[in-house]
Amino acid sequence: MTADDLNAPLGQHFRKRRFAIPITLSQAMAGGLALFLGGFVVWAMVGYNPFGGEPMVVAPIAPHPGVATKTPDGQPMPKVVAGNPDRYDGPVPSQGAPAQSAAPTKTITIIDGKTGARQEVTIPANEAATPPDAAPPIDQKFVEMTGHGAIPKIAADGIRPADAFAQPAKPLPGKPDAPRIALIVNGLGVSDSLSADAIAKLPGAVTLGFMPYGGDVPTLAANARAKGHEVLLQVPMEPFDYPDNDPGPQTLLTSLTPQQNIDRLYWLMARFQGYVGLTNSMGARFTASEASFAPVLREAAKRGLVFIDDGANPRSLAGRIASANNLPFAKADMTIDAVATPVEIDHALGRLEMAARDHGVAVGVSSDLPVAIEHIAKWAKALESRGIQLVPITAVAQKAKQT
Fold first, then answer.
1. Phi, psi of 40 (to 5 degrees)
2. Which of 30, 241, 326, 389 is buried most, with the most CB atoms less than 10 Å from its CB?
3. Which has the closest alpha carbon to 280: 338, 323, 244, 329?
């Protein structure tokens, strides 16, 4: 008999109770997850993360030698140490260095990758942004603002854009009456590489026609002008097999009213500036319709431009309409790369020379195919030695009557 037997009531046995956890394992896991999520929410609410979890890279930036040494309020400018975004590494001019207040500057913002603190630093403007041989900016007196952007206009003093943007024609020494050839290379602006190649390789007397659709047409056209080229805007016009053969967006169409075509013309003219005139891109149907074509050429004359017919359509009314509206005009005599092989291109250039000798003036057009660019550039180098002058298109365009 044990002590428990003596203390337990008769007929009952005393059992020890074991301690048991009042929750299950799944309940414990759920509680832990809730505790973790609650802590994360609290951290997200009170924590400071200026980048909101965005991926970022911290890179040291070396300052320009002309970086400012003081902030606008007169405090010393912090100096960055490589690997530490709080400080700046690189040369800083001494306090006694001469100030360069006349130099153009710009302000950049440096963001600390750890704390998100911002610091504004004034540095010299990038000199490479404006090439030393860049074309001069377009004088605003030749610009009219429309809903589509800036388009050319005759200045208040009567100067036409065609005259303002024309390049001088240099006569041959001792041969003032030498035969003259104007050569136009069209299709530029669509391919940046082909356009840059044409601008670099062709002599400045070659006129360049730009399509209005390339993303960098304003820069390419400005580069062409800086190299001494006259520039034309190629205007897409309706061919006979339109829309199977589509020149591009905002094409001028015979099915549209004159007002609608003029509105499209404004859109095309606003793509870039500095051109001396317009030339057609396709347009066999459009240039043969006086009702559609005449308002466009009247607008070109009103804005002080020239018009160049590419000569592809024998039914084109460009010459007659231009004459009736005092619009300076020229028509191409032949296409240089109609057959785009080296032999045929050389033969076409030879025929262009013969036409210039027979008539005193000849006009040729070509595309920007690399084979055409190569052979035109080679041909042009020896042209003066054969007694023929290469001139920009405004030198041979029939002049408008003065009003």
1. -65, -40
2. 389
3. 329
User: Which run of H or of E encompasses 235?
Assistant: strand 231-237
Residue 263 vs residues 155, 251, 270, 299, 302: alpha-carbon distances, Å: 21, 11, 11, 11, 15
Q: Which residues contact 35 (CB under 8 A, 6 or more apart)?
A: none
Report the mean per-residue pLDDT for the chain.
81
To which H or E segment does residue 219 belong? helix 217-226
pLDDT digits (tens, 9 = 90+) for 139-149: 899 999 999 99
Integer Cα distance of 129 and 262 in angstroms: 35
Distances (CA, A) of 61 to 87, 88, 111, 143, 396: 10, 7, 11, 41, 55
For the chain, domains (ranges, CATH) are 61-94+101-127 (no CATH), 141-395 (3.20.20.370)
Q: Residues 74, 79, 80, CA angle at the centre, nearest 5°?
A: 145
| Alpha carbons 279 and 307: distance in angstroms, whole number | 6
